[in-house]
Design a protein that fits this description.
The chain is α/β, with parallel strands linked by helices. Among the domains are: 192 residues, Beta Polymerase, domain 2 (2-Layer Sandwich), CATH 3.30.460; 120 residues, NAD(P)-binding Rossmann-like Domain (Rossmann fold), CATH 3.40.50.720. Helices cover 58% and strands 11% of the residues. A six-stranded parallel beta sheet has the order 7-6-5-8-9-10. The protein has a four-stranded antiparallel beta sheet with strand order 2-3-1-4, sandwiched between helices. It is elongated. The C terminus is likely disordered. Catalyzes the NADPH-dependent reduction of glutamyl-tRNA(Glu) to glutamate 1-semialdehyde (GSA). It comes from Desulforamulus hydrothermalis Lam5 = DSM 18033. Belongs to the glutamyl-tRNA reductase family. Its EC number is 1.2.1.70.
Length: 455
């Protein structure tokens, strides 16, 4: 049984193409059932996120299986196969397995080491199980991939260092104040960057959120998301007395928080530390504010330094992760190759035994009456000849099975000896029948009507 993946991601295709090739979670089971009905597909799974769509298959023959996936994607998206091929990548065998292990470890993500993909791959596997579209090879592949992703994060800590501005803001707040448990934050400006930063602050223990914005309605909307309160912009400095952290991110072209205003605030705070994080460009906070007692002021450059340093650490962790992936990959290949070669060796030995028995019977018929001893001697001779003829081919097949080219040697042996090696055609028929019972005809129309990616 072989393995292949055909996919599209944020590096190979623009959003308008990825949208057409995406599979909403609620429709994946039906689409998997449909894919199983295509020629050569013995097992399949679909990983579909906002940044990627990847179809994993276990075909008996690569060309047939991959052609089926191209046709399947064309039917689903309405795009020509030639157009789809322009935006997709294709990996087979060893490279397909390594790709999945790298994906689930966060090494192929837009943000190096991100953790969300691990859960997304796990969910994709669960959906494939529910659709009965997997087989033992894909089951083992995805199980080991998920284990690999967990191991990479545990042993390398690749996801521990923030590599975005909002994450970096939280990191600096921690360095300035220590624990963020029970702290309060005042947000100046109600844009997306402010919101993302508050999300991470709240996740790290901040309990009180105050939002001030020139548009008071917008301030109210953002405050409600965090069970916080909104204040009018002209009362900004009054409420700054209550904050441990200030996040400022407005579109103003001048300083919103000036030295003179902050000087009065610090006098009222009587030396109590306040951490101010200026995410805006141009800056919202007068740099001179940094000179005031009890003020720790950080701007975008400080945040970028944290991002760069942490990204460097993630890249270093990624090197270690690649080593872990190779270990897991070799372990899986040993399992897969051994599983793949055993039926071939069994068929080869069966063929030798059939030829031996047939020729022995023919010889005994021609020789007439033989003593029991003579029969044993002739039988032993035939047995020895067959064993010696098959000994080296069997040894070489076992050795070749542990290499990335093992499947080629096995296929050659099957062809040379015309071996009857059983595949899984009956399993495939059963799976397609089971999928038919899930209501493919009813569900597919709805899926085709909405091909937007599920976040």
């Amino acid at each position: 049984m072989l393995i292949a993946v055909i996919g599209v991601n944020h590096r190979t295709a623009p959003l308008e193409v990825r949208e057409k090739l995406a599979f909403p979670e609620w429709g994946i089971k039906d689409w998997l059932c449909k894919l199983l009905s295509y020629p050569g597909i013995e097992g399949c799974a679909i990983v579909s996120t906002c940044n990627r769509t990847e179809i994993y298959i276990a075909p008996l023959e690569l060309d047939t299986g991959m052609s089926s996936v191209w046709s399947f994607l064309s039917e689903k998206s309405g795009l020509d196969i030639s157009e789809i091929k322009n935006y997709t990548f294709c990996h087979t065998l060893y490279d397909a397995i390594r790709h999945l292990f790298r994906v689930v470890s966060g090494l192929d993500s837009m943000i190096l080491g991100e953790t969300q993909i691990l859960g997304q791959v796990k969910k994709a596997y669960e959906l494939a199980l529910a659709a009965q579209s997997t087989n033992v090879v894909l089951n083992t592949l995805f199980q080991q991939a998920i284990t690999t992703g967990k191991r990479v994060r545990t042993e390398t800590g690749i996801d521990q260092n923030p590599v975005s501005i909002p994450y970096a803001a939280v990191e600096l707040a921690k360095q300035s104040l220590g624990s963020l448990q029970g702290r309060s934050v005042l947000v100046v400006g109600a844009g997306e960057m402010s919101e993302l930063t508050v999300v991470h602050l709240v996740a790290n223990g901040v309990t009180s959120v105050i939002v001030s914005n020139r548009s008071y309605d917008r301030a109210v909307q953002l405050a409600e998301k965090f069970n916080g309160s909104a204040v009018k912009f002209d009362r900004l400095f009054e409420y700054m007395n209550k904050a441990d952290i200030v996040i400022s991110s407005t579109a103003a072209q001048h300083y919103v928080i000036k030295y003179a205003d902050m000087k009065q605030v610090t006098e009222r705070r009587a030396g109590k530390t306040i951490t101010m994080i200026d995410i805006a460009v141009p800056r919202d906070i007068d740099p001179a504010v940094r000179q005031l007692p009890g003020v720790n002021l950080y701007d975008v450059d400080h945040l970028q330094n944290v991002v760069d340093a942490n990204l460097a650490e993630r890249r270093q962790a990624a090197v270690q992760a690649e080593g872990i992936i190779e270990e897991e990959l070799n372990e899986f290949m040993c399992w897969l190759s051994t599983r793949y070669v055993v039926p071939t060796i069994s068929a080869l030995k069966k063929l030798g035994e059939e030829i031996k028995q047939r020729e022995l019977q023919r010889a005994f018929n021609r020789l007439g009456d033989l003593t029991e001893r003579e029969r044993k001697v002739i039988g032993s001779l035939a047995n020895s000849i067959v064993n010696q003829l098959l000994h080296h081919p069997v040894i070489k097949l076992k050795q070749a099975a542990l290499t990335p080219e093992g499947h080629l040697y096995i296929e050659i042996a099957q062809n040379i000896f015309n071996l009857n090696v059983e595949g899984k055609p009956l399993q495939r028929k059963k799976k397609v029948a089971a999928c038919s019972a899930t209501g493919w005809d009813k569900g597919i129309t709805a899926v085709a009507a909405d091909s937007r990616p599920s976040e």
